[in-house]
Amino acid sequence: MGELSELFAPERIAVVGATDRDGSVGRAIMENLLDSFAGEVVPVNPKRESVFDRPARDGVGETDADLAVIVVPPDVAVESVREAGEAGIGNVVVITAGFGETGSEGAARERELKDVAEAYDLNLVGPNSLGIMSTPVGMNATFGPEDADAGRMSFMSQSGAFITAVLDWANEQGIGFKDVVSLGNKAVLDESDFVDAWGTDPDTDVIIGYLEGIDDGQRFIRSAREVTQDTPIVLVKSGRTDAGAQAASSHTGTIAGSDEAYEAGLEQAGVIRAETVQELFDAARVLESQPVPERDGVAVITNAGGPGVMTTDAIGDSRLSMATFADDTLEAFREALPAGGNVYNPVDVVGDADNERFRDAVDVALGDENVGSVIVLACPTAVLDYEQLARDTVALQEEHEKPVAACFMGGARVEAAEAPLAEAGIPNYFDPARAVDGLDALSRFRDISEREYDEPTAFDVDRERAREILSSVEDRADTRLGVEAMDLLDAYGIQTPDGDIVDAPADALEVAEGIDGDVVMKIVSPDILHKSDIGGVKVGVPHEEVYDAYEDLVSRARNYQPDATIIGVQVQEMVDLDDGVETIVGMNRDPQFGPLLLFGLGGIFVETLEDTTFRVAPVSEAEAETMTEEIDAAPLLRGARGRDPVDVAGVAETIQRLSQLATDFPAILELDINPLVATPDGVKAVDVRLTVDPEEL
Ligand code: ADP
Ligand code: MG
């Protein structure tokens, strides 16, 4: 593929299927291009002499263009693309619909299109695309009704209709764009390609997108991680699809749907995810125009008590905090404010504050080292001129080079203040929560751009042994494995209690006698997923009861399902649960992102409590550690209420070792270690369940 920058900066555009027929897509594109494109527009239509007074060519091969926009019907579209490729045109936008989105015939056509694109090494957008835009060259190669204003955001969208809606709104808001692309069916170029391209584009300051899906999650993470070292990416991801074709038989599979994978994958990629279009543009605008704060302390300067409290609450809900002022800042406030004022954060300059007092207070706050950013929060009064306050805010923001958000409350009164603030890129909202969200996005991006991505640790493991154990499903009717696959964990260095699986009561006793103290006994059957649900787990069995316990477990299994395949009974060392915490470490496979790891509070109530966190594998040591800190029950691991802290490092290591196992073996579709009992002395995996795809072995 050629450089994508060429796609957005063509000199000659051929419109294949150009026409002036009213209401047609070919006409809309011609009109949009002729309106403002800096280069040449060449219509291609063998049935016309000319289109819009330009001589029409019979074929795209005669155009000498460097970009071809295809609007001909689907049955001839692929042929046109082939001709473009043959003529050495490297960039193609296929507007035509009737491909993969329409059924099997369309899907076949899309495969053909892909093959042609590959054969000629084409930068191909679409098919089923609204088109592309690039404001520096005045190119609007879409059939939408709106043109984009110039700006420094580049925007990709999987929905063409959404682009037209956004542009209509953005034009009114004064939001401009550098490039816009309607991704269409993403037969060739997808979101990762545009992330790569815009990441190195000097004219793109922020990448924004509306995505319904990400084709190759692992590639997207790699691309976005690199790009977000400098360029923020803000995305709305909509549409929730089912995680996999296979019905989940693990807890992880039940809890981890595709949205969990997106949540984790986008986070790991360094993407700021917006839930709504408003959030998307609030974040994008402030990222485009304001510096990132050096620290998270916010100063709130206000002339009204109530809104000050609202803002304080919003800051409390965010990753930011209320700044604590330095002594000389407090001193300066005392001098600047009247007796009724509050020198502590939120600073109350009092309702009678004029512009001078307000400005002085903002100036003092911005000058404090502890203050990373400032919110100027004003209610209308007779002595305050909003326009002047806006000008002062802009000047002070520029002088101190710290991010500032404005909350000038009111209606018509605010209008005069809008223009100077907007020009300086200072967002102004009625609602303090939105102002806080903007500063929050800046703080998040600061952390993202400073992230260091460590390589995952490579543990010394017995891969061959693991493969053998996984291959045991090949001789079975079922692709699920239970505790009979305990050795798989051993092969990857994950600690398990002593024990064995036996198929006779006398053997059970023999194993028990090799273990100190009471034992745990469990039924082993591929037909019994959750052993304790059927009374298939006996904890604290004294040696003298092992024989009877064996018989009892087997008869319970028979009662539950007469034809159940019973492999035997596991006799296992007891793990001290009193000092320990039952956790779950699991994985399942997401169609887009691949292996997804779960960590959470474990035991038999996992699905009831759902205290969990996710990451796309492989994870680094730091990421695994963060997982152990993220669950609500994290304080339990670190020794709440006078208990000894458990071996959290051991938990993090288990997560990493499972990450390596899941990465090494695509054949493992899902796996639960539940519980992984974490005690002060170490961690032990007392139960395992997994599903294997023998085809992938
Ligand atoms: P299942 O999940 O199929 O019901 P488990 O092997 O996870 O079966 O056992 C269920 C519960 O029994 C565990 O959550 C734990 O509380 C307890 N348990 C199982 N094995 C042990 C053990 N070796 N030591 C202490 N408690 C255990
Ligand atoms: Mg279990």
**Strand fraction:** 15-25%
Summarize the main sheet: 7 strands, mixed
How many DSSP E strands? 30
What is the oligomeric state here? Answer: single chain
Helix content: 25-40%
Question: By helix and strand content, what is the structural category?
Answer: alpha/beta
Shape: flat
Bound molecules: adenosine-5'-diphosphate, magnesium ion
Describe the structure.
- The chain is α/β, with parallel strands linked by helices and 697 residues long.
- It is built from 24 helices and 30 strands.
- It has a seven-stranded mixed β-sheet, with helices on both faces.
- A hairpin with a 3-residue loop joins strand 25 and strand 26.
- Helix 3 (74-86) packs parallel to helix 4 (104-119), helix 7 runs parallel beside helix 9 and helix 19 (505-513) packs across helix 20.
- The protein binds adenosine-5'-diphosphate (ADP) and magnesium ion (MG).
Question: Helices, strands, pairings?
Answer:
Layout: H1 4-7, E1 12-16, H2 25-36, E2 40-44, E3 50-51, E4 54-55, E5 67-70, H3 74-86, E6 91-94, H4 104-119, E7 123-125, E8 131-134, E9 139-142, E10 150-157, H5 160-173, E11 177-182, H6 191-199, E12 206-211, H7 217-227, E13 233-237, H8 251-255, H9 258-269, E14 272-274, H10 277-289, E15 297-302, H11 305-317, E16 321-322, H12 327-336, E17 347-348, H13 355-367, E18 373-378, H14 386-400, E19 404-408, H15 415-423, H16 432-450, H17 463-471, E20 480-481, H18 486-491, E21 499-502, H19 505-513, E22 519-524, E23 537-541, H20 546-560, E24 568-573, E25 581-590, E26 594-601, H21 606-609, E27 612-616, H22 621-630, H23 634-637, H24 648-664, E28 668-679, E29 682-685, E30 688-692
Parallel strand pairs: 1-2, 1-5, 5-6, 6-7, 10-11, 10-12, 12-13, 13-14, 15-16, 15-17, 15-18, 18-19
Antiparallel strand pairs: 3-4, 8-9, 8-11, 20-30, 21-24, 22-23, 22-24, 25-26, 25-28, 26-27, 28-29, 28-30
Bound molecules: adenosine-5'-diphosphate (ADP) and magnesium ion (MG).
Magnesium ion (MG) binds next to loops.
